[in-house]
């Protein structure tokens, strides 16, 4: 006991909780030259980024250098979403051509092309081990595709949504879907239950929080809501941005401190998660910010506007680069 | 180690050794039979073949021996060289395999059975010794003694391990009495010097010393040697016994068949029993007494009669040499005795042998047959009364000679279950034994009342019935039907309570043609209902006119019963027996079970209105949450590394329940689907404008359809007003004046024309092939160009989009006004609509129909939030919808001038083609007009020609004028 007391006395003072750094300095802009960039995503470790183009291609970029590494073409229409497997060996992408494609990253070849959705596929996600691809489509169904077998049919079809599915997220044992019928559905595989939370406005994007306790959903009533996952209670409501017509992304920062959302007024809005107050309004451009993605570990943000992708960091890089931009 | 290796060298390895198992090696699956291969010793694969794939292929690739097969021997015989007689040995037909170690004629030295058997197997040895003695050359057992391999068979080894010792019998150890016999054996084995008789005495003496609790091994049993006599000696002749001969033993006197074992054993063991005999010299039956002999032995065998049994089944001759082969007479001869038991083997403890034998079976003589017995059975024709109408039945019965009321004792099969029960004296079963027991008293009373009434009626008309029956029996089928009809018409007269249909049914079914009417099962999907219906039908067949009442389920409500009654009657008249006779020839197809059921999710969602209220009050949580049981696919769980939450349930997804599709209750409860259905039926459009054939209605109606409808309903004046208002809100003040100054009928006509224009527009949209087609045609393949072309397309799309749904900020007025300017959408609606329209059918949003105030907005959102436009070339910040819309228009116009000409041309071409198809008589007129607006914007073009079409139809407004007006309008907008 005295020992611990001594230790306590000896212990370093608790470091002051640092104000979380928000990525607000533009590091670089990538001109993707692939039409409108429909979605931009980090890969699993955050060293690369993927941009989904309106010209049917998918491009892989280096985040740090901003160089184009590879172009994946094979879709028949706009690419709408992409996800990277945990080991960076595979990509899955979905498109308006109603297909979901599994890519081999290194060769750029199509490993599997899965048809089955009746409409354009809005969103796609790998599960943790990249054994299943979950895709949500405008036809109101969520399909779970097996990456391990050559079976052309999905493992399971979740057709509970009464309208198009705009967003899907996967956690260890849950599927979170947001659909245009104004409901956030959470399929708990472990419990074998489906929880449907009514939001009353078409959902554009859903997210899990990093701790897995909350779900974030943005809807077309220009509101982002943070719901308690287990009970469905409202924990926070974030407003101020404009999201009335387009499918825009929202996300949480890497440490769950802030809530981020795109806006139709060309800004990215940062709210404090707990207080709900607007902490930063980051101006990206004049057009709609279509997509955004937060780095899994570092304060780095990607935004997509029209044909460009912006990389934002917490600290400015060399002024030269900025000038160049 | 050296010794080890030596040891290994000593071993003969045989076969293929098993591979050593490594510890962490996974268990290998055994090779399946079809995968197993067989190789010969040279490593070639051999195939099994033959009728039952039993044998190997012979020789070289299924030939015998050589490539050429089996060459037949040539027979050559000439004068010089006579062919010798060829003897074929069996070995000539054998190959190496046969001559090999396992073949049928092995050439190598192997251990034969004789040597393989262990020397220690005494019993066998003894048996063999017996044979050896009788063999012409005796003494090979001696040889065997010398050359015996030191090997003991496995069985003996095992027995030894279990505590068996040589010379003992096999089995549990025994108490004293049987043990004596064991002792006898022991004595025989080791104590042969004693003469047999003496041995018994000594044994008795020994008995004294044996304590009570000592057990003994069972007696050993010597198998009797069944060696056939294959020599030519006389019976019982033994030849010269070398031992006896050399040892000088004289003959043992009479050859006792039954005692020879002991003698021989002693002989074999070579102990010197005949000590008193002289040594040396050959002696035997065949030899006389030599000169060296001291005494004259009786060389001539004298047999004494006393050695023979002269009584059948006489005294026990032996010394207890019995086992399972004991001579038969032992068992039969001695009835009394305990000794008997030992022959039968071991008797269970607590049992004794029966002292009296069982009685012999008495055989009874067969019974004497009656005099009139015929050994052939005569089958009496059986009357199935249930399948015949009562009249006919009665007639038949009377004709046969039975009276219907005859209380004749019935046969076993005619009794019903309760009567049979009474006969058997059983108690009645628990529970209600009839349907009527289940009825409550009220219903029962009612039923009995009905029945009574029916009875009375029947009795009153019974004479009539009888007469009718006679007729029916006598006359042919047609006549019978007529009679039945008459009879039933009587019933119809007498009982007015039942509907005419029921009577009809009764008539149809009680006619004799309905004898074998089964088959039609109209209510097969509902077994209970079908059962009730069957009951009703069988009632009908028996002519029971209150069959309907009886068959109905009394637990149902009055209303349900009424309905079912109607259904039954209808079904019965529909599926008449006449058709059923035909139907018997066909097997009914398997009925689709889900024919009239719908699958409905088991857990219903909560009320939408409540949830909306909750959302408005921001009371998220329980109010807004629905929880369902959801079954993930087994494979999905596996892929997620999660145990199946519902192991063993084959269900996937939400559990569903089947509901009757046509059930009234389905319509009473309001489900989501029904509400959408209702919504759709509400929005079912009135007929399109006269003369224009409408294409198929889209599953979902766009806002524009609605506006067209709305304007239809309003009168022209109010329409005009609204239009004016609309204009005022928009940015063209000049247009208002123009519009207002126009005469009322003209504007009305114009607006009408514009409505049609819109209709046209819609048609256009629907009949246009999807965007992909255009893309496939016009888009070039290279990357650079495709991006630029996609830009062009997107512009194009914007144009199209501008023509149909407005953006969210669009004025809520049903803008029946000019379709030329795009409705102000902040950014023009993006992606191609054809695709979306395709998608309309599957995605039927419940929210949109369920939420009236939001209907408008939801309708736009029913396909989900759109995607932002690819780019904003004129980078002005869009702050208000109006400015943005201006911007859009501006941009579009400019682009049109630059780029879109070619495409619009193409489009026009297509449109025109379609129109040609539709209205060929107007083709000329149109083409004239087409030339003029060629260079104006595509939208104005569309409106122009559609206007011209409708103008032709209504004949109200000259198209040129309209065109001019539109042009001026667009010009203003540009400025």
From TrEMBL, chain A:
Keywords: Cytoplasm, Repeat, WD repeat
Region of interest (Disordered), ranges: 1-20
Gene Ontology BP term (one): mRNA splicing, via spliceosome
Annotated GO CC locations: catalytic step 2 spliceosome; cytoplasm
InterPro entries membership: WD40/YVTN_repeat-like_dom_sf, WD40_PAC1, WD40_repeat_CS, WD40_repeat_dom_sf, WD40_rpt, WD_repeat_MORG1
WD repeat locations: 30-71, 72-113, 114-155
Gene3D superfamilies: YVTN repeat-like/Quinoprotein amine dehydrogenase (2.130.10.10)
Subcellular location: Cytoplasm
Family from the record: Belongs to the WD repeat MORG1 family.
Protein name from the UniProt record: WD repeat domain-containing protein 83
Species of the source: Synaphobranchus kaupii (Kaup's arrowtooth eel)
TrEMBL record, chain B:
Recorded GO MF terms: RNA binding
Domain of life: Eukaryota
Domain annotation G-patch: ranges: 151-189
GO biological-process terms attached to the record: mRNA processing
Biased amino acid composition, Pro residues: 821-833
Biased composition (Basic residues): 889-924, 965-975
Record field: compositional bias (Basic and acidic residues): 413-424, 589-607, 925-935
Start and end residues of each stretch annotated as Disordered: 99-121, 400-440, 504-527, 580-607, 673-975
Family membership: Belongs to the GPATCH1 family.
Name this polypeptide is given: G-patch domain-containing protein
Protein species of origin: Synaphobranchus kaupii
